[in-house]
Every structure is written in C-alpha cells, then in structure tokens.
Amino acid sequence: MPDTLGVEIKMSTSDSDKRSIPLAARHLPEIPPMRRDGESLSQTISQGNRMSVGPGIDLKGEISNCAILVVEGNVEATLDAESLEVLQRGVFKGEARVETADIQGTVEGVLTVTGLLRVHSTGSASGKITYGRIEVDTGGGLHGEINQIEEENTSAQLKIKKEAVDGK
C-alpha cells in the first residue's frame, strides 16, 4: 500500500497562504457520524457516502455520489445529494439539489430542497431557493427568489420516480 492516497488538498487561510498537503493513508474504525443532538445521522438519512469540508479548506468542482455534505470551509460546486449541512463558518456557493438542508452558515446560488430547509439564526441563504418545507429561526435570512414546491408537483415527481424504478 502506498504511503499516501495520492490526493492533495489545497488549504488556505488567505489567498496568499496556500499550501498543498498530501493525505497519508489512514484506517479509521467505523464510527457513525453524529448530529449535535446526539442522534446518529444514519438514523435520519440512509447510510451512504459522507463528505466533510473542514475549516480553512477551499473546494471547487462537481460533487456527486455524496449522501451528506458537511461544510465548515468554503465550497464552490454543483451538488446532488441527500443532505447539505452548512455549519456556522461554512460557505456554499453554486447549485445544490438536496432532500434536506440545514443552514447555519452561508449559502449563495441555486438551492433546491425537496424536503425540509432549515435556516438557523446564524444562517443565510440567497439566490434562487426552492423548498418543500421550511423552518427559519429568528435572525435567519432568506434573500432572493424564494418558492415553495407545490404538493402537486412533488406528488407528480414522486410518481414519475416510482414509475422509473418499477419500469412502468
């Protein structure tokens, strides 16, 4: 097995302080990710691929095959996932289509949430935002074009997805 995974992450605290760090191979025990309320994420979202972008990390690109994206750094991307969690100092810019979103930081761009969009008191979302259900804490911000997915459209989309899966 090679000493590194052959992956480099560009981290920065400012534009003038960029450095590359090769990631060493690590074998971690199977520990389910936990929510702040102590409930395992796997209890609320089907077990799948999980990605975390830590503080001080800038990530740009397309993110696919990701069940849960947790953002503490800066992400500029196109995302198709089950869940997006932007923590208090996290920033997500781009286009995201998710089932649930939990925003404590900043989201800018196009955000489509087919289920619950939760914006905490420290969170803000701006751009074109579409949601199935919404919870906004006092102090949380929504700016731009904000639309709720109509139940008829949601039911029709679910029916189309079911027919595609069933082969009808």
Describe the structure.
By secondary structure, this protein is mostly beta strands. The protein has one domain (48-166). Helices cover 12% and strands 56% of the residues. It has two helices and ten strands, in the order ββαββββββββα. β1 and β2 (18-24) form a beta hairpin. The radius of gyration is 17 Å and the shape is globular. Residues 1-14, 24-33 and 38-45 have low confidence and may be disordered.
Could you provide a short overview of the structure?
The protein contains 2 helices and 10 strands. With 168 residues, the protein is mainly beta. The protein has one domain (48-166).
Helicity range of the residues? 10-25%
Number of domains: 1
Instruction: Give the CA-based shape.
Output: globular
- Topology as a string of helices (H) and strands (E): EEHEEEEEEEEH
Poorly predicted residue ranges: 1-14, 24-33, 38-45
Q: Report the C-alpha radius of gyration, rounded.
A: 17 Å
Report the oligomer.
Answer: single chain
The CA-CA distance between the termini, in Å, is: 47 Å
Q: Please report the number of helical segments.
A: 2
Approximate strand percentage = over 45%
The overall average pLDDT, rounded, is 77
The biggest beta sheet reads: 8 strands, parallel
Number of strands: 10
Which class do the helix and strand fractions yield?
Answer: mainly beta
